[in-house]
Write a structure and sequence with these properties.
This protein is an all-alpha fold. It has a single domain, classed as Tetratricopeptide repeat domain (Serine Threonine Protein Phosphatase 5, Tetratricopeptide repeat), CATH 1.25.40.10. About 65% of the residues lie in helices and about 0% in strands. The radius of gyration is 16 Å and the shape is globular. The two termini are about 15 Å apart.
């Protein structure tokens, strides 16, 4: 993630590929490395490669479906994007961490907005914002504040978008910055 955040996308891709290979060989399984790898590939414009990576983990905690929804949205395949975003959100509801669900809801919000359902979009992003209140986290790790502001702008609510999200409860250090992983508290 540090490589990606610092613009070293190819380094991030290589390290994430190594991590996913190690993970497949071991007993510990999480969809985060695959999801991050897919997002890195998508950021490079390699949507077909990203789609293949996301499809590898579609049944693993929902992030695979969320990633597929992101690619389908980017390809303007809104019906398929909506199906995958909905399936991803439902699967992420069963995950112990809130960030996957918040990301899924943010993707669902974008898909609903593009599909002509601005009220459904706001409903999804408001639920996401309630899950991940730390608005000061980088958008690559927590897309909710950015998506929320963009949806408000799309609705013409410029004052609300400019005001930003309400302050997070507690201190910034009280919220996990990435993926609900205890090592990043």
């Amino acid at each position: 993630m540090a490589d990606w955040l610092q613009g070293r996308v190819q380094d991030a891709e290589h390290k994430l590929r190594d991590l996913t290979a190690v993970q497949r060989a071991g007993s510990f399984r999480t969809s985060w490395p695959h999801y991050d790898l897919g997002r890195v590939l998508a950021a490079q414009g390699r949507l077909a490669a990203a789609l293949r990576v996301f499809e590898q983990v579609m049944d693993d905690r929902g992030l695979g479906h969320v990633g597929v929804a992101e690619v389908r949205y980017a390809r303007d395949e809104l019906d398929a994007a909506l199906d995958h975003a909905t399936a991803g959100v439902e699967a992420c509801r069963r995950v112990a961490h809130d960030l996957p669900l918040a990301i899924g809801l943010a993707v669902l919000a974008w898909v609903r907005q593009a599909g002509g359902d601005p009220e459904g979009a706001m409903e999804a992003i408001e639920e996401a914002a309630a899950l991940v209140p730390a608005a000061d986290v980088t958008a690559l790790l927590n897309p909710v504040p950015t998506v929320q502001a963009r949806l408000l702008l799309a609705r013409g609510e410029t004052d609300e978008a400019a005001a930003g999200p309400p302050p997070a409860a507690g201190t910034p250090s009280a919220t996990c910055a990435t993926h609900g992983n205890a090592s990043t508290w």
